[in-house]
């Protein structure tokens, strides 16, 4: 890459010149000390090596780490070789000539013949990750609503290793891009204006900010995928109640991610000032549905015999009656009343709990007992009261977990939009091209207007 060539070339040249000059100065000074020459050379070699190694550990010196390395090698080479031959000046000059020749060849090939720009790679990497996170998010939502069952979960996913699962590979690429983005950023800041990046001091750091905001969203996508891989699953009938709202939120979020990714790729500003309007509307509908059907997200059977629950019911009813009387509205059934009428169906968990039954070990890892380990769930066998209620409560809460994570994704998506707007302003992205407005045919269109003009039509 040109930027890496320029960066390393600068560090190598600076390190060679400073090391050669310092070595010559010490060598010439040591010659005037007679018998102390050997001692001065040895002591200076160890002292310079110690100070150089210590200095390059400082965080602010990280961009010049290669230069420190070349400085140390050049100083040691000139001091040792020059002392052996007695020609310190010739050794230093030969070292500099070889460094200059290598730099000229590298610059000529990497810039004049086959240029590869780190900034362009950083740009493409950030734009590509948008599509990956969008596909993972949409896939997680679709598979969750389909009540997808994994016959066997790959241990590669459990240990965060590369896997063929498309839901996993999409967000994983965005999560792991941090180190690569930082490496490309360190090289890109050395690049001169080129191609579509014609601005001096191009805001490459803003690309990494966009990537960081997208990575913040990808962590939520990872958690959503974890809900699908979870041992504790919500019953399908409960998922169907919220399916339309959940699906809409996932679809709108993925749509925004793809649009942002395309805008980053084409270096175009947003066409709409409120790109998240539909996303926020869908999230509000989901939250409203959760509020209305919150009794589906907990095990409400324990409420019926609990005095505390009766007190909560009375308080809820009194609050609702007071509020509705003030607004002169008709009294509707309360959530507590709906809870009493709702009969929770028994959820057959055996299909979800048999995903590891195909083998006792997974890629060499011992299979762990299922939770709760004392209870066997089977659709044809009666369930024990305490264990079954515990599992049913947890399974109902898993739906609340998935829904809340989806709403959290919407909240984090706002940070991505902010980061993109900052990038588009600093990098002077081009304005979006407005599509031509279709000609209205309410008055008969162009032909009707011409007929009216010549008097053929009143």
UniProtKB/TrEMBL annotation:
Q: Which family does it belong to?
A: Belongs to the aromatic acid exporter (TC 2.A.85) family.
Localization per Swiss-Prot or TrEMBL? Membrane
Recite the UniProt keywords alphabetically: Ion channel, Ion transport, Membrane, Transmembrane, Transmembrane helix, Transport
Q: What membrane topology does the annotation report for this chain?
A: Multi-pass membrane protein
InterPro entries from the UniProt entry: ALMT
Q: Which positions, given as ranges, span the membrane?
A: 67-84, 96-117
Gene Ontology CC annotations of this record: membrane
Which Pfam families did the record assign? Answer: ALMT (PF11744)
Q: What is this protein called?
A: Aluminum-activated malate transporter
For this entry, list what GO says about its biological process.
Answer: malate transport; monoatomic ion transmembrane transport
